[in-house]
Specification:
The protein is α+β, with helices and mostly antiparallel strands. Helix content is about 25%, strand content about 30%.
Length: about 260
């Protein structure tokens, strides 16, 4: 009965983690480029009380094991990099990736981070940066006297300067992809970091084989499905309740055993 309590408690801990993940998904339903997480569970160790193949009192062999498990645990919280809805903003520096790839971002410590959030801005120095002021890689500088800015599906950035009729090329946006994007480390600020399980980044131009294209004036919305998350929340709540009931039943059984009189 003590084991039943601990087993049920492991189920309650697992459902708490499940609810925490659902809450984070729902909290970021309007976060640009956000990718939802999926929790995966597995059962814990088993105690074998009678092994298969052992002899019974009558000389026969037990056909199957007699085992009892010790509960459940969460083993992964995997990011799902399904494409989110593409929303039009008509803002020239808003970019959405249609397909595979991440924008490359230079962090203050000099390391690269990766994002699907294409809500870029221009800094006081004319550098194309994120909302936090981190420049993209390779760095692109927009001249101050620009009258028109165009970013093609291949990431090529061209500008038209005041008093001129011919556009000028000021750089090209590059993308990175990973063999296992689910292995990327979430850094916050809509950024992901390289990890040994993600594989080394492969860099290429938008539209190149294996890379998505870039759409100017659009952003990628979160891929959170509110209906699915609400269903998962109900399932987690019911599982939490049934595990708590198991603890109460085990406690009542233990109380009954303690109150036995000779």
């Amino acid at each position: 009965m003590i084991r039943a309590m601990r087993t049920a408690a492991s189920g309650m801990y697992a459902m708490e983690f499940f609810i925490d993940t659902i809450a984070n998904n729902l909290a970021n339903v309007n976060t640009t480029g956000f990718k939802k997480s999926k929790v995966e569970f597995q059962d814990i160790l088993y105690q074998t009380q009678r092994a298969a193949g052992t002899s019974t009192v009558l000389g026969a062999q037990n056909p199957i094991d007699v085992q009892v498990g010790y509960g459940v645990q969460a083993v992964s919280s995997q990011k799902l990099f399904e494409q989110g809805d593409i929303t039009q903003t008509e803002i020239p520096l808003d970019l959405a990736i249609r397909g595979n790839g991440f924008f490359q971002i230079n962090q203050p410590d000099g390391t690269l981070a990766y994002t699907r959030d294409g809500t870029f801005k221009v800094s006081a120095d004319g550098i194309l940066v994120t909302s936090d002021g981190f420049p993209i890689e390779p760095q692109i500088v927009i001249p101050p006297n620009v009258t028109d800015l165009h970013i093609g599906q291949d990431g090529m950035v061209t500008v038209l300067l005041a008093g001129e009729t011919a556009p000028q090329n000021v750089g090209q946006i590059e993308l990175s992809k990973f063999i296992n994007p689910a292995g990327l480390k979430s850094l916050g600020r809509n950024l992901y970091g390289f990890s040994p399980t993600s594989g080394q980044p492969v860099t290429g131009s938008p539209g190149a084989p294996g890379f998505g294209t870039v759409s100017q004036g659009f952003v990628e919305a979160s891929n959170v499905d509110v209906v699915s998350e609400m269903i998962n929340m109900i399932l987690a709540q019911r599982a939490y309740e049934i595990n708590s009931k198991t603890i109460r039943v085990a406690e009542e059984m233990l109380s009954t055993a303690n109150n036995l009189k000779r």
